[in-house]
Specification:
about 325 residues, alpha/beta, three-stranded antiparallel beta sheet, single chain, 16 helices
Length: about 325
């Protein structure tokens, strides 16, 4: 028996096919193929080795930002004298998570929103980043992991428009979309975001432009496509004025997209945090001390830039991590 799809799910446009080659190039340039298990040696500027004799396994999920953060962590802690096992680029979100919970890995970067909804199964919306961090940190201690203070970036969901379109429509916030004619309320999203409990349909409702309701957004204004094609389609403003993006993605800057303010605080914060096995953290407080200034430097614009070096320029995550740590004075080359 053939299953009938919702009109939004069934709709595929020619732009997806036309851009497929570009997507393949984008994926092949993301620098993930040979990045696992390697990082460049370095030392701390003063030659100190506070973690000498400590074995640390660093893991990560298998997308650009995660591998980059894993390489930064592995490179820096190894420079501090640790014996680092690089387990970055683990397939799937749960494999890196499970590795830390099982004791097969010691450190991973995680996002507060992911932990709150996916790992802890919570449904309450907490828009304050610090409050969400504290709730996650406290709950996760029962799982044997310690969440170090969040970095200065928030890799959350967002919507963007091309600079010319944002200027033409005079939109700066998500609420501004409701002021536009219905014909201009056009969106590009991926399947996963459409089906999420905190995704597209609840978002439209929160901004008073509900799907297929009077004064809202008709299904014909919504195009489903792969995430990579969303960026290029949004940059062309065809077939959509507004596309779903991740707020630290390097393509935002490269394609000159304007991210709209989530002025009603619909999206959960996804603050990046170093998550450490509790035993290792308690035995080595130096890890938190070392990672704190690194985390503080990692802002949304910086992550867009560093991610772009990998996804767009084709740089290896290990090299991007090493160069950034060196440029910031965290490490120096090994003689």
């Amino acid at each position: 028996m053939m299953t009938r799809l919702h009109p939004v799910r069934a709709r595929r446009v020619a732009t997806v096919l036309a851009a497929s080659a570009a997507v393949l190039m984008m994926l092949s340039a993301c620098g993930l193929v040979s990045s696992s298990g390697t990082f460049r040696p370095a030392s701390l500027p003063g030659g100190e080795r506070p973690l000498e004799g400590t074995s640390i396994a660093v893991t990560s999920k298998n997308f650009t930002e995660q591998v980059l953060l894993g390489k930064i962590t592995a490179t820096y802690l190894a420079a501090a004298g640790a014996d680092v096992d690089d387990l970055t680029n683990a397939p799937g979100s749960m494999s890196s998570r499970q590795a830390v919970l099982n004791g097969d890995a010691d450190i991973v970067w995680e996002y507060t929103g992911t932990a709150w909804q996916t790992y802890l199964g919570e449904t309450e919306t907490i828009s304050d980043p610090q409050q969400l961090y504290e709730r996650v940190r406290d709950a996760e201690r029962a799982n044997g992991v310690e969440w170090l203070p969040p970095a200065s970036f928030n890799n959350t969901y967002a919507f963007a428009a091309s600079s010319p379109t944002a200027e033409r429509l005079n939109v700066k916030t998500m609420s501004d979309i409701a002021k536009l004619p219905e014909s201009e309320r056009t969106f590009c999203i991926n399947d996963e975001f459409y089906s999420r409990a905190d995704g597209f349909i609840p978002m439209l409702k929160a901004y008073d432009i509900p799907l297929d309701q009077p004064g809202g957004v008709p299904s014909s204004n919504v195009t489903m496509m792969d995430s990579g094609v969303v960026y290029t389609s949004t940059a062309r403003s065809e077939p959509c004025n507004f596309g779903m993006v991740y707020s630290t993605d390097g393509r935002i800057k490269n394609l000159d997209l304007v991210v709209l303010e989530d002025d009603r605080k619909f999206f959960l914060p996804y603050s990046g945090c170093v998550v450490v096995n509790t035993g290792l953290n308690d035995a080595n407080p130096e890890i938190a001390e070392l990672m704190a200034p690194v985390s503080a430097k990692l802002t949304d614009p910086l992550m867009q830039e560093l991610n772009g070096l990998i996804d767009i320029d084709g740089a290896d995550p290990s090299d991007v991590a090493y160069d950034w740590l060196k440029d910031e004075g965290f490490i120096v080359p090994v003689d």
